[in-house]
Automatic annotation (TrEMBL):
This is Diguanylate phosphodiesterase. It comes from the Bacteria. InterPro entries: Biofilm_reg_signaling (IPR052155), EAL_dom (IPR001633), EAL_sf (IPR035919), GGDEF_dom (IPR000160), Nucleotide_cyclase (IPR029787), Rev_trsase/Diguanyl_cyclase (IPR043128). Residues 517-771 form the EAL domain.
């Protein structure tokens, strides 16, 4: 409802109105004085309403301004007509003749209401036929009422000639036309202005009732100078003045605050006079006993048709509401669809541009949805999407928009709130931790998530499309990195720029000979259960001394038919089926057992580097578990280097810091793997307490050919010196690269130039080889796996 600012003028107006009503009812000073008060009062209140309408016309724009101008002129007519009548009563001391100029003035109002109706009819999108029929229903019902009340008597009364009677009928007919038109307007105005039109229409009805009551009393022989007709008219005048004031003071702007469908009361409004008309008609005809059955039958018919019609209306409305709802909902999941999503995002972005209210978008894409569809059927695919929707909604704070944009793509709008977008994104990720039960099977399904935040007010504003695009780019980068997790968009990020080889193969494409995936999965489960995965070790060579200063454990699957499979070939399958936890335990146990054979505290402290699956970092008991395994083999924590891939770090900077601190507090070395493959801002290096940096293969390989790559590697190595951490270059395949790295001061190198990954026995040999031997490379490294 509108807020009308309180104004002492209103109190004064209300007091004058009350005094006026009392005067008319009590008749102070006798009939003569009361008649004068009544006539003068009508002029004064008409002038007030005319002024208010003019004000509303000035404040409004377009059709609203024109409409109120018409109404202002209508009441100007009243001021003129009222003044002429008052002159006759006060000065001449007689009732003005009928018809007179005064009547032309009074009839300006119906014309003005007609203008308002035409303005609305020209603008409204409702069909002309419906408007005409609604108008007919209202007018016919009102006509019946007015006929029974006054018109019949007017035309049958012998005191009036036909012409006089017809002229006398002008007022009631004008009144009922006015009411019909304003009710029609009321049923079509937009929600935002409905209350104004409601007050206006009530005012028009009060005036019409005053007119008809005046005629009724005239027919009874007393000329109405005051009493009920005048009170009714003046009340109507004030209501219209109030409507005008509301229209002038209402805040302009989005008026579509209300629902798009018509409220029930307005839907019924055109029919409201019908029951009264039927009752009036029945009462009117009842005395004629001959036609009573016909009258009764007709009445029942009309009322039943009316009720039937109204039920159809109600049903239609319910259907409309459903359609309106579905136009914005994804039918499968019930989440917002793309239309609603973009609409809400547009709105959020507009707020962001105006007040700087933060807004972020999460873009989610399932990693292996196609596999579910292909292997378990579309029915399961649909069930999975529904289940995902059910998990997503509770994982974001209430009021945030969760949408399915199509296929296996979801998106979430994150608006201002106590939680950071990263926190929410993390929770969304956790919603996929548990397996999905599909067709009696546990299926693990993970999304790649991209997060993009709208820039602050001090930066150029961003469009809806651009923000969504950024979230998508980040999502693709997350997908390509293969580690899952959330990727935050950083300026300059582009699709296809990330390191060419994803850490664990691109999701969904497993480079395997054509073996049925289901069969392979069965075998893989057995291998994991039986602890039959093996570890290959690749030495890390000190570039200063040629000594082996570390070894990296790399998992292998010796397959009876397919040969030794590398992680790219089977890790995605493990990951998808929730077997990574078991593999991590296996790798840890085996690496600790193997390291126990070579690790000699104080004599040969060569730590084993272990790659951990990103989600295992969410496990708070991780340091404890690793510590226990090492202790079981008599190894100190320093015997292990934990490799954390850079992609995980970038996606979870805050949590990563906590994880790294925990691991280091427990005494393990921590290394950042694949450095340079993601969108490192470098600044995180300064903040994270790490021991080692592993330069990514794709970063090191082009060094010889590309001076820029070399310069970057050089400066990163210099940075590690400043930070006092060690650097390990991966994928060193030739002497020249090794030499260049040594010149830059790189601590250690790993790669086929020194040694391919090999199983323990071969490693044992290498560890026993003296440093100069390693530096004098052999042409073919032994037992590469
Ligand atoms: P990574 O951690 O970057 O491991 C280094 C990869 O580079 C290894 O591939 C290694 O064989 C390969 N490599 C070594 N020297 C050279 C070289 O001179 N040139 C080239 N082109 N490549 C070289 P691998 O063994 O196939 O492992 C692939 C990835 O699988 C690893 O990348 C690591 O992210 C992941 N991974 C391996 N073992 C495990 C494990 O036990 N657990 C987990 N969670 N991930 C593992
Ligand atoms: Ca690694
Ligand atoms: Ca690496």
């Amino acid at each position: 409802m509108p807020m009308i600012r309180w104004n002492p003028g209103y109190a004064a107006g209300a007091a004058v109105y009350l005094a006026f009503v009392c005067w008319l009812l009590v008749g102070w000073g006798g009939a003569q004085v009361t008649a004068i008060v009544s006539s003068v009062g009508l002029v004064a209140f008409s002038a007030l309403t005319c002024a208010c309408a003019a004000m509303a016309a000035r404040a409004g724009r377009g059709a609203i301004a024109i409409g109120w101008t018409a109404i202002a002129f209508g009441f100007l007519g009243w001021v003129v007509g009222g003044s002429i009548r008052a002159y006759h009563e006060v000065v001449v001391g007689a009732v003005p003749p009928f018809p007179s100029v005064a009547d032309i003035g009074f009839l300006a109002l119906p014309v003005a209401v007609g203008v308002v109706w035409m303005l609305r009819a020209a603008k409204g999108r409702l069909s002309v036929v419906r408007q005409l029929l609604d108008g007919t229903v209202i007018a016919a019902a009102l006509f019946l009422l007015v006929w029974v009340a006054v018109l019949q008597r007017l035309f049958t009364d012998h005191r009036f000639g036909t012409v006089h009677a017809a002229l006398g009928a002008v007022y009631p007919i004008a009144a009922l036309t006015m009411v019909t038109m304003s009710v029609l307007v009321l049923t079509t105005v937009p929600a935002g202005r409905r209350y104004i039109l409601g007050v206006f229409t009530t005012g028009i009805i009060a005036i019409a009732m005053g007119d008809i009551a005046a005629l009724y009393m005239q027919l009874d022989g007393d000329y109405p100078t005051g009493g009920f007709p005048m009170i009714s008219k003046v009340t109507g005048l004030l209501m219209i003045a109030a409507a005008a004031t509301m229209s002038a003071t209402v805040r302009r702007g989005r008026s579509a605050a209300g629902s798009r469908t018509m409220p029930t009361t307005l839907m019924w409004l055109p029919y409201a006079p019908m029951p009264f008309a039927v009752v009036a008609a029945v009462a009117h005809l009842w005395p004629d006993a001959d036609i009573r059955p016909v009258v009764l039958g007709a009445a029942v018919l009309v009322i039943a048709t009316l009720i039937r019609q109204l039920t159809v209306l109600v049903e239609n409305r319910r259907l409309l509401e459903q359609v309106a709802k579905h136009a914005f909902r994804d039918p499968l999941t019930g989440l917002a669809n793309r239309l609603l999503f973009t609409d809400r995002l547009d709105h959020a972005i507009a707020l962001q541009h105006r007040d700087g209210r933060p807004v972020a978008v999460l873009s989610l894409d399932l990693d292996d949805f196609k596999l579910v569809n292909d292997n378990l059927g579309h029915h399961s695919g649909d069930a999975l999407l529904r289940e995902i929707a059910d998990r997503l909604v509770p994982s974001v704070p209430p009021g945030h928009t969760v949408a399915r944009l199509g296929g296996d793509e979801f998106a979430i709008i994150i608006e201002a709130g106590p939680e950071t977008p990263e926190d929410i994104a993390g929770r969304v990720m956790c919603a996929f931790d548990e397996p999905f039960h599909l067709d009696g099977e546990d299926v693990y399904m993970h999304p790649s998530i991209g997060l993009a935040e709208a820039p602050g007010l001090d930066e150029p504003p961003i469009s809806t499309e651009e923000l969504l695009k950024r979230a998508d780019v980040a999502m693709y980068v997350a997908k390509r990195s293969g580690v899952g997790g959330v990727q935050v968009f950083v300026p300059g990020m582009q699709i296809g720029e990330v390191g060419t080889t994803p850490a664990w193969g691109d999701s969904g494409q497993i480079r395997l000979p054509p073996v049925s995936e289901i069969r392979l999965l069965g075998e893989l489960r057995r291998v994991v259960d039986g602890g039959d995965l093996r570890l290959a070790y690749q030495p890390q060579i000190s570039l200063a001394t040629g000594d082996i200063v570390g070894v990296e454990a790399l998992v292998r699957w010796p397959h009876p038919d397919l040969g030794v499979l590398t992680p790219h070939q089977f890790l995605p399958l493990l990951r998808r089926n929730g077997l990574m936890g078991a593999v991590t335990d296996l790798v840890l146990e085996q690496a600790a057992r193997d390291a126990a054979a070579w690790y000699r505290p104080g004599i040969r402290e060569v730590p084993v580097a272990i790659n951990l699956f990103a989600p295992s970092f969410n496990d708070a008991t991780l340091p404890e578990r690793i510590g226990a395994v090492l202790a079981g083999h008599g190894l100190p924590p320093a015997a292990v280097t934990i490799e954390i891939t850079e992609h995980y770090l970038l996606a979870n900077v805050r949590q990563a810091r906590h994880v790294i601190e925990q691991l280091r507090d427990a005494g393990f070395r921590v290394s950042i793997d694949d450095f340079g493959s993601g969108y490192a801002t470098m600044s995180y290096l300064r903040d994270l307490p790490i021991d080692e940096l592993k330069l990514d293969r794709n970063f090191v390989a082009p060094m010889l050919l590309n001076p820029r790559a070399a310069a970057i590697v050089h400066s990163v190595i210099k940075l590690t010196h400043t930070l006092g951490i060690t650097s390990v270059a991966e994928g060193v395949e030739d002497a020249a690269t090794a030499e260049l790295l040594r010149g830059y001061g790189c601590t250690a190198a790993q790669g086929s130039y020194f040694a391919e990954p090999s199983f323990t026995t071969a490693l044992q040999d290498k560890l026993d080889v003296t440093a100069p031997d390693i530096k004098e490379r052999r042409a073919a490294p032994p037992s590469a796996v």
